[in-house]
TrEMBL record:
Oxidoreductase found in the keyword field: no
Presence of keyword Transmembrane helix: yes
Species name: Thermoleptolyngbya sichuanensis A183
Coiled coil regions, renumbered to chain: none
Record-annotated membrane-spanning stretches: 31-53
Signal sequence extent: none
Keywords assigned: Membrane, Transmembrane, Transmembrane helix
Pfam families: Pentapeptide (PF00805)
Protein name per its UniProtKB record: Pentapeptide repeat-containing protein
Amino acid sequence: MHEVWARLVRCVNGAELWQCLQALLLPARRMLVWSLVLVGAIALLSPVPALALDYNRENLVDADFSGRDLTDSSFTKANLRNANLSHTQLQGVSFFAANLEDANLEAANLTNATLDSARLVEANLKNAILEGAFAFNARFEGAIIDGADFTDVLLREDMQDKLCAVAQGTNPVTGRNTRDTLNCF
C-alpha cells in the first residue's frame, strides 16, 4: 500500500494525471482479471447441484438418463420402458406406478425411492442400491437383481419370495449380500 501512495505522489508531481492513473491501475486490472479467471474456474469445476425434475406422466420410452443426478425428481406414472438409468443417482425419486419394464437400472442409487405400484418386469437392477425404498406393490417378475441391495425395502411377502428365489451376489458399493438384504431364509 505504501508503494501505491509513493507512485501517486510522484505522478502528481511530474506526469500527466491520466498516464499516472493508467500506470497505477494496471496491476489492479491484472489482479481483477486473475480473480475473475479463478472464480470462473471454481464455478466450472464445482459439481452442479441436482435440480429435482418433474417427468410425471411423460412418455420416456428408450430415454437415456445414464450417469445423471436426478435426486428427488418425480417419474410418477411415467412410461420408462427400455430406458437407460444405469449409474444414475435416483435418491428420493418417485417412480409411483411408473412403467420400468426392461429398464436398465444397473448400479443406480435408488435409496429412499418410491417404487410403489411400479412395474419393474425384466428390469436390470444389477448392483443397484434400493436401501429404504418403498416398493410394497412393485412388480419385479424376471428382474435381474444380482448384487442389488434391498436393505430395509418394504416389499409384499409374495414378491419377496420371488426375489429370494433368484437372489445372488454382493453389492460392490455397500458390501451387502443380496439374499441377506432381502431377508431370505
